[in-house]
Amino acid sequence: MRRRVFLFSLASLAGAEQDRVRIVPRAHRPAAGGAAPASIRVDTELVLIPVTVTDVFGSPYRGLGREAFRLFEDGVEQQIKAFSCEEAPVSLGIVFDASRSMRGKLDEARVAVARFMARAVEGDEYFVLEFNDRVRLRCDFTTDTRDVETALSGIEPKNWTALVDAVYAAIHRMRRAGNARKALLILSDGGDNYSRYTEGEMKEFLREADVCVYSVALQGGGLIKRHIALLRQIAQETGGLLCPVSRLEDLPEAIEKINAAIRQQYLLGYTPTNRTADGLYRKVEVRLVPESPGGLRATWRAGYYAPLKD
Predict the structure, then answer these.
(1) Claim to verify: residue 139 and residue 216 sit in the same structural domain
(2) SS3 label, residue 310
(3) Are 145 and 239 within one domain?
(4) Cβ(212)–Cβ(262) under 8 Å?
C-alpha cells in the first residue's frame, strides 16, 4: 500500500470539528544546504537536562546530590551550574490508545489515569489525545482533573492504531504548555499499523522538543517487541521511563512508578563550553560517579539543538 506524508494542524476548530485533529498536506523538506531551522531550539545560555534515575527494580531513586553526576556535551565534560530535584508543576499530555485492541482494558486504564491525577500538585495542567486510526483532541490544556476524567469517559475502542501520529500530534500540542516541565504519558497496547508519519520523522520532531516521554506498554494486544523497543527508545532519549505491563492488575504499580519518576526527576543545568551558534545538534551524556549506590541507572534528555545565528 502506498503511503503519503501529511502534517497535523492542531489549531482550534469551530463547532463539531473542535475536538478533531485536521490533516493537511505536508510541505516537502528543503534540499540539503537549504535553510530549515528547527521548530524548537535552545536559545538561552543555560541548558537544562532532565534526568531520571532508577534502581534495580525500575523504581525512581531519590537522594542523589549534584556531586553524583557528571555531564558531557559531545564528549567534553561540562560544569554543572544548576541542580534541582524538587517537585514542580508539570504540563502533561495524556496520549490514550482507543484502538479496538483496547476492548476490555479501558476501565482499568481510566482508573490508572485517575490514580495518576490524584497525586496532582498545584499548577499541573493536562490535555488528552485519543488515537485509533485517527488522532483527536479530547480535552485541551486544563488544570481541572475532572475535565480529564470526563474526556476519558467518552472514549470507545475501535479501528486501527496510529501511535506514531499521536505522539507527533502531542508534541505539537505541547508547544502551548504553561510549565517549564513538560511530559507525555502514553498508554497503549497496540503496535502502530496506520500512521502517516514515519518513526524517523516522529523521533526527529521529538529531538527538537523539550518533552519527556513516559509510556505504559500494555502487552498482549498486538504490541510486538519492535514497538516496545520504540517506546523504550523514545523514553530513554528524552529522560523518561517505559513500564511494560503484562497483566492488568499490575497497571496501578506501573502508573505509580511513572508518577514518581515525573515528580522525582533531577534537573541538571550547564553553560556549554561550545558557544558556536551553528544550529547543530549537541549530544549530551550523563554519568553517575562510581561512588553512587550500586544498581542505579540514569536516563536523560539525549541532546539539544544549539541556537542558530541570524
Answers:
(1) yes
(2) coil
(3) yes
(4) yes
CA angle 207, 191, 184 (to 5 degrees): 40
Give the predicted TM-score (pTM) of the model: 0.81
Three cell numbers at 141? Answer: 490544556
CB proximity list for 104: less than 8 A, separation 6 or greater = none
Mean pLDDT of the chain: 85
Which residues form the domain of 188? Answer: 89-262
Confidence (pLDDT) at 264 = 87
Bridging pattern class, strands 181-188 and 76-78: unpaired
Q: Map 69-116 to HEC letters.
A: EEEEECCEEECEEEEECCCCCEEEEEEEECCHHHCCCHHHHHHHHHHH
SS3 186: strand
What single-letter DSSP state applies at residue 56?
T
All cell numbers assigned to 2: 502506498
Helices (H), the chain: 106-117, 145-153, 163-173, 199-207, 225-237, 251-263
Residue located via cell numbers 503484562? 246
Phi then psi dihedrals of residue 125, to 5 deg: -140, 155
Q: Tell me how far apart the 2 most distant CA atoms of the chain are, in Å.
A: 59
Which three three-digit cell numbers place residue 112? 490508572
Strands 90-97 and 181-188, by their bridges, are parallel
pLDDT in tens, 45-87: 899 999 999 999 989 999 999 999 999 999 999 999 999 998 8
Chain mean position to CA 42: 18
Q: List, as own/partner pairs, every contact residues 73-76 make where C-beta atoms lie below 8 angstroms and the sequence separation is at least 24, other chains included.
A: 73/47, 73/270, 73/272, 73/273, 73/274, 73/282, 73/283, 73/284, 73/285, 74/274, 74/282, 74/283, 75/285, 76/273, 76/274
Q: How far apart are CA 279 and CA 309, in angstroms?
A: 7
Whether 52 and 155 map to the same domain: the answer is: no
Q: What are φ and ψ of residue 280, in 5° steps?
A: -85, 160
Cβ(284)–Cβ(73) under 8 Å?
yes
My answer on whether 241 and 279 are in the same domain is no
- 210 and 74 belong to one structural domain: no
Q: CA-CA distance, 299 to 168, in Å (whole number)? A: 21
